[in-house]
């Protein structure tokens, strides 16, 4: 018991389980609780229910959050009625965490709908040669079906395993009869010391796209020459960015389009799917976001374009899923992508499902998923799509379309952001989506019309604040600015103001505000023809830089410069994004003390701009989102982030904004922009407050 407790307190739940289970059957409620709780952090989450229920029956107060954990356990065991019962009890007792539980209840509705009408498909583990106790993912099978390329962090080096330095490598396995043969590392030209991963394989099997952990993560290409793979070459700057993450990619069968995932500015969420076309010179052109039909405020990743060139598969935690990333399908029709369709159960599960690829006849697919019958961590599975049992596609939907999805719960489960689930039979035929009125009786399955307010919402392409329409103004520079400039105790910010989509230069009004006094010390106009500007920022203060142009989002930057800072020049582009309902923007000049939720004085100018926005645009309804880094207790971070967002809302309401037009939501540490591994800069970026435009009623 003591050994198990030591592991449990270190959150080493696998070893804690081994110790606890060695004690044999017991009626001790505290031990049963710890066993059940530990199972929730393994691939065998469904086993948690029996232990947690036993603990609950013997001692209902065994843990304050026992109902929440029981809900999770039953949800993972597909016992949705019991899961919902415990989630609702937890929500009743924890009013402040109602949003967290509402999302879990919503996931139960989705899971219940999907599992009641499973698609006709056979799901099989790819076998013990390909899969191991480690992670295996991104299976790429050649057109003839005889070779598989995949990625794994398998290792027999105990030191690397314990230290977490068993980095991912790419493996290749031949087909031996009906099974996969022993894999080997693909090539010393490809596998490097740190993480490298397979992204996609061309139709002819001779071009391999790779992910390398270089910079923030880039896409590279290798070709097979004389039986070996060439040294990978990075794709051009239209694909790879120096500061952002490109995670996966695939090329269309004709070689003319590249689909890839990136969290670069200009996206609509975290990871988005983008497309680039090959130009006349054989170079990849400017990437274009696939738009709000495909991309959500969550993550869209691992795109796979079918050889037909019009069917796109991808993984998402932003579209309605069973609890984590599910696999979705969309088709290009008349130049537009159709609403993504969830591939359904049993292809998708409550756990992660992604890196899906499928044969040309759409009958056999491979993907990576976490399953209770797996060999360890994520495994590679084969799915065989069988003829539909129904003559017509069946469309299912949640019977609670008005539930506003919430943020991720404390226990590791991603979020759901839309209340409508559409399930199609396996992609042997083109699915048909038919909008029908809501029907109150469960059978037959019905489609609930998708609420307008639940459409995916884009996320900041750059630090932005509000929708305004500023005219060109008379320029003003405080005399003290010139004095600081002559003394060279300034930072010169210069560059261009450009349109995010077209890169066209823009004329805009750029203001420099002293956040401590609220005084505007500089106001200039960028050149309307070239977009050029130059702004002098004095050292020794906290300053906000705001850029405004009619029809565009308000762009905000913060400079907190010590008096002893060296003279510097910063060349940059201020990227302006056209104002669209659903935008999420970071409020760069809203500040809180560590662990506190009260607005600091320096925040007033920025919050006043929000008030001005809502006053001048009475048709807008917005939400203030709070985020923290990953330090400290996850539940406390949730509460703190919500309190911080609420502080902004309280200010707005107290200063004349109707409470029906502004709300608050706290996400804690569950939606980082960058990795929290960078303990100073990374965590500082992730601690942020956002404004999200929910509705535009007549605007």
From TrEMBL:
<feature type="domain" description="OmpA-like">
    <location>
        <begin position="579"/>
        <end position="697"/>
    </location>
</feature>
<dbReference type="InterPro" id="IPR006665">
    <property type="entry name" value="OmpA-like"/>
</dbReference>
<keyword id="KW-0472">Membrane</keyword>
<dbReference type="GO" id="GO:0009279">
    <property type="term" value="C:cell outer membrane"/>
</dbReference>
<dbReference type="Pfam" id="PF07676">
    <property type="entry name" value="PD40"/>
</dbReference>
<dbReference type="InterPro" id="IPR011990">
    <property type="entry name" value="TPR-like_helical_dom_sf"/>
</dbReference>
<protein>
    <submittedName>
        <fullName>OmpA family protein</fullName>
    </submittedName>
</protein>
<dbReference type="InterPro" id="IPR011042">
    <property type="entry name" value="6-blade_b-propeller_TolB-like"/>
</dbReference>
<keyword id="KW-0998">Cell outer membrane</keyword>
<dbReference type="InterPro" id="IPR006664">
    <property type="entry name" value="OMP_bac"/>
</dbReference>
<dbReference type="InterPro" id="IPR036737">
    <property type="entry name" value="OmpA-like_sf"/>
</dbReference>
<dbReference type="InterPro" id="IPR050330">
    <property type="entry name" value="Bact_OuterMem_StrucFunc"/>
</dbReference>
<dbReference type="Pfam" id="PF00691">
    <property type="entry name" value="OmpA"/>
</dbReference>
<feature type="region of interest" description="Disordered">
    <location>
        <begin position="673"/>
        <end position="699"/>
    </location>
</feature>
<feature type="compositionally biased region" description="Basic and acidic residues">
    <location>
        <begin position="682"/>
        <end position="691"/>
    </location>
</feature>
<dbReference type="InterPro" id="IPR011659">
    <property type="entry name" value="WD40"/>
</dbReference>
């Amino acid at each position: 018991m003591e050994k198990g407790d030591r592991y449990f307190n270190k959150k080493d739940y696998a070893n804690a389980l081994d110790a606890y289970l060695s004690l044999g059957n017991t009626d001790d409620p505290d031990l049963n609780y710890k066993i059940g709780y530990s199972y929730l952090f393994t691939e065998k989450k469904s086993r948690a229910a029996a232990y947690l229920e036993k603990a609950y029956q013997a001692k209902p107060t065994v843990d304050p959050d026992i109902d929440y954990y029981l809900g999770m356990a039953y949800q993972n065991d597909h016992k949705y009625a019991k899961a919902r019962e415990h989630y609702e009890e937890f929500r009743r007792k924890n009013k402040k965490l109602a949003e967290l539980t509402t999302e879990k209840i919503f996931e139960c509705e989705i899971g219940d709908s999907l599992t009641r009408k499973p698609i006709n498909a056979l799901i099989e583990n790819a076998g013990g040669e390909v899969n191991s106790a480690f992670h295996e993912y991104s299976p790429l099978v050649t057109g003839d079906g005889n070779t598989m390329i995949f990625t794994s962090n398998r290792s027999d080096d105990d030191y690397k395993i314990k230290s977490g330095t068993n980095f991912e490598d790419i493996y290749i396995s031949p087909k031996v009869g009906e099974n996969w043969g022993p894999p080997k590392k693909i090539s010393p030209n490809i596998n490097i010391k740190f993480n490298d991963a397979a992204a996609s394989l061309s139709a002819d099997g001779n071009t391999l796209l790779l992910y390398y952990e270089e910079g923030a993560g880039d896409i590279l290409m290798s070709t097979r020459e004389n039986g070996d793979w060439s040294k990978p070459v990075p794709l051009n700057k239209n694909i790879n960015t120096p500061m952002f993450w490109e995670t996966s990619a695939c090329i269309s069968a004709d070689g003319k389009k590249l689909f890839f995932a990136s969290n670069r500015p200009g996206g609509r969420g975290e990871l988005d799917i983008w497309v680039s076309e090959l130009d006349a010179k054989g170079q990849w052109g400017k990437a274009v976001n696939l738009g709000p039909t495909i991309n959500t405020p969550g993550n869209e990743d691992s795109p796979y374009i079918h050889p037909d060139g019009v069917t796109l598969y991808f993984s998402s935690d932003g579209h309605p899923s069973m609890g984590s990333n599910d696999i979705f399908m969309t088709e290009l029709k008349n130049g537009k992508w159709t609403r993504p369709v969830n591939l359904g159960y049993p292809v998708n599960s409550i756990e992660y499902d992604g890196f899906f690829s499928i044969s040309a006849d759409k009958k056999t697919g491979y993907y990576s998923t976490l399953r209770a019958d797996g060999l360890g961590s994520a495994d590679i599975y084969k799915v065989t799509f069988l003829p539909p049992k129904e003559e017509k596609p069946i469309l299912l939907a949640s019977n609670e379309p008005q539930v506003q999805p919430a943020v991720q719960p404390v226990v590791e489960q991603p979020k759901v952001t839309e209340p409508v689930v559409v399930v199609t039979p396996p992609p042997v035929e083109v699915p048909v989506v038919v909008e029908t009125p809501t029907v109150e009786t469960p059978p037959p399955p019905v489609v609930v019309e998708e609420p307008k307010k639940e459409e995916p919402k884009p996320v900041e392409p750059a630090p932005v604040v509000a929708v305004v329409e500023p005219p060109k103004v008379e320029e003003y520079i405080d005399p003290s600015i010139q004095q600081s400039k002559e003394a060279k105790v300034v930072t010169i910010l210069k560059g261009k103001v450009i349109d995010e989509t077209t890169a066209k230069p823009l004329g805009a009004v750029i203001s420099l505000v002293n956040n401590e006094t609220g005084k505007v010390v500089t106001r200039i106009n960028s050149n309307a023809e070239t977009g050029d500007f130059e702004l002098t920022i004095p050292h020794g203060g906290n300053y906000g830089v705001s850029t405004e142009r009619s029809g565009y989002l308000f762009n905000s930057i913060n400079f907190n410069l010590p008096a002893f800072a060296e003279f510097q020049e910063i060349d940059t582009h201020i990227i302006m994004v056209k104002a669209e309902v659903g935008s999420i923007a970071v409020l760069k000049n809203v500040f809180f003390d560590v662990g506190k939720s009260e607005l600091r004085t320096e925040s007033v100018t920025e919050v006043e701009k929000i008030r001005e926005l809502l006053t001048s645009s009475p048709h807008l309804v917005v939400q203030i989102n709070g985020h923290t880094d990953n330090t400290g207790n996850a539940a406390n971070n949730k509460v703190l982030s919500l309190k911080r967002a609420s502080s902004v809302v309280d200010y707005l309401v107290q200063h004349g904004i109707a409470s029906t037009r502004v709300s608050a939501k706290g996400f804690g540490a569950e939606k980082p922009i960058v990795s929290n591994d960078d303990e100073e800069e990374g965590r500082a970026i992730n601690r942020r407050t956002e404004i999200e435009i929910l509705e535009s009623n007549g605007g």
